[in-house]
């Protein structure tokens, strides 16, 4: 009890602290750091592939080259993230070709290489299944020679079928 009495003086102080609003805390917003625009990917392999597919791309001041450069500048301005991909030269070359109606030039386009036919044709699923069924011993769909000459029971003719059941005529 002695301990409780010694802390009774704290009750009014706690009550006053609960009624007084806390001073406002100033929140400082951090200034966002601007994200730099991504630099175009060098994409040397894609650039070589684009120039081999579209030879007019490597010739300066051709219609294809000018259109490609215009598309490149448009991508730099509007969507620089697209130029960060590794295949952006191919994408822009295909887009330029679709705009101009130009077809890609493939290296051996004059002599297409035919695909060789397989030596033995691959069996279909059904043929494989039929071979599996033929290999089963004692299959139910295989008829066995178990017929006997007709017998008589109460004047009725019967025989035994392949499964051993009695069949009446």
The CA-CA distance between the termini, in Å, is 112 Å
- Order of the strands making up the biggest sheet: 1-2-3
The assigned structural class equals mainly alpha
Number of helices: 6
Total number of strands = 3
Shape: flat
Mean pLDDT: 77
What is the subunit arrangement here? single chain
Major sheet attributes = 3 strands, antiparallel
User: What is the H/E order?
Assistant: HHHHHHEEE
Helix content range of the residues, please?
Answer: 25-40%
Low-confidence stretches: none
Radius of gyration: 44 Å
Percentage beta strand: 5-15%
Question: How would you describe the overall organization of this protein?
Answer:
This protein is mainly α and 169 residues long. The protein contains six helices and three strands; from the N terminus they run H-H-H-H-H-H-E-E-E. The protein has helices spanning 2-6, 10-19, 44-53, 63-78, 88-100, 125-135; strands at 151-153, 156-160, 166-168. Strands 1-2-3 form a three-stranded antiparallel sheet, with no helix packed on it. Strand 1 and strand 2 form a beta hairpin. The mean pLDDT is 77.
């Amino acid at each position: 009890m002695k301990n409780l009495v010694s802390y009774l003086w704290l009750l009014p102080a706690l009550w006053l602290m609960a009624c007084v609003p806390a001073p406002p805390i100033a929140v400082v917003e951090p200034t966002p750091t601007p994200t730099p625009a991504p630099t175009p990917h060098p994409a040397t392999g894609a650039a070589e592939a684009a120039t081999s597919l579209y030879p007019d791309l490597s010739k300066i001041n051709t219609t294809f080259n000018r259109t490609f450069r215009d598309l490149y500048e448009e991508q730099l301005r509007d969507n620089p993230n697209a130029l960060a991909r590794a295949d952006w030269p191919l994408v822009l070359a295909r887009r330029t070709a679709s705009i101009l109606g130009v077809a890609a030039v493939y290296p051996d386009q004059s002599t297409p290489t035919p695909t060789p036919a397989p030596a033995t044709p691959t069996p279909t699923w059904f043929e494989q299944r039929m071979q599996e069924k033929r290999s089963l011993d004692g299959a139910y769909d295989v008829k066995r020679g178990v017929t006997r000459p007709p017998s008589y029971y109460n004047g009725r003719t019967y025989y035994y079928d392949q499964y051993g059941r009695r069949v009446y005529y």
